[in-house]
Amino acid sequence: SLTNSERAIITTIWDKMSMQADVIGTETLERLFSSYPQTKTYFPHFDLHPGSPQLRAHGSKVMAALGDAVKNIDNVEVALTKLSELHAYVLRVDPVNFKLLSHCLLVTLAAHFPADLSAEVHAAWDKFLSLVSSILTEKYR
Ligand code: HEM
pLDDT for 86-100, tens place per residue? Predict the structure, then answer.
């Protein structure tokens, strides 16, 4: 689990990100779908062209869920229970895709906040996304 200093780092970087949450969410999905086109198979019902309204709306939803996780950083499992059930039982997203999405979000953060992405911040944020991903995929087991 996360140390106190990791929690502090995550909260700080989130405060910056959240001001541009929509831009960051959209760019993360654009990177996901262009670098890893196989991920598009989960969204056959979406217009996935860069900047499409559906892509932007979905990027906002993903970021809002991460915001909930940050706000409940001591209790992320409870905060994400419903989403965990959705991804496992309804959407059946293969867990490998969570690593790809996490990577694209990290790259997007590095592109937007290059001065903030020290090795320490990188590591803390990576750990947080691993935690979120493991919660969203734990119902599979
Ligand atoms: C839906 C969050 C990873 C595929 C959603 C929703 C949220 C969300 C908030 C909307 C739920 C609702 O409408 O009630 C997240 C978070 C993730 C993540 C926080 C990881 C950090 C993934 C991955 C994939 C995926 C890796 C597949 C590549 C989907 C699909 C939907 C969905 C297909 C339904 C879209 C729709 O029809 O509206 N996700 N997700 N998610 N997610 Fe995820």
Answer: 998 899 999 999 999
Nearest to 21 by CA among 84, 131, 135, 108: 108
Answer for the pair 88, 39: CB distance below 8 angstroms, yes or no: no
Mutate to test the pocket of ligand 1, among 91, 108, 126 (most ligand atoms within 8 A of CB): 91
Q: What is the mean pLDDT of residues 126-139?
A: 94
Could you tell me the pTM of the whole model?
0.96
Report whether 84 contacts 131 (CB < 8 A).
Answer: no
- pLDDT of the residue at 141: 57
Q: Are 31 and 107 in contact (CB under 8 A)?
A: yes
Atom nearest to 98 CA in ligand 1: 26
One-letter amino acid of 98: F
Q: Which of 97, 96, 72 is nearest to 14 (CA)?
A: 72
- Ligand 1 centroid to Cα of residue 48, in Å, is 14
The amino acid sitting at 96 is V
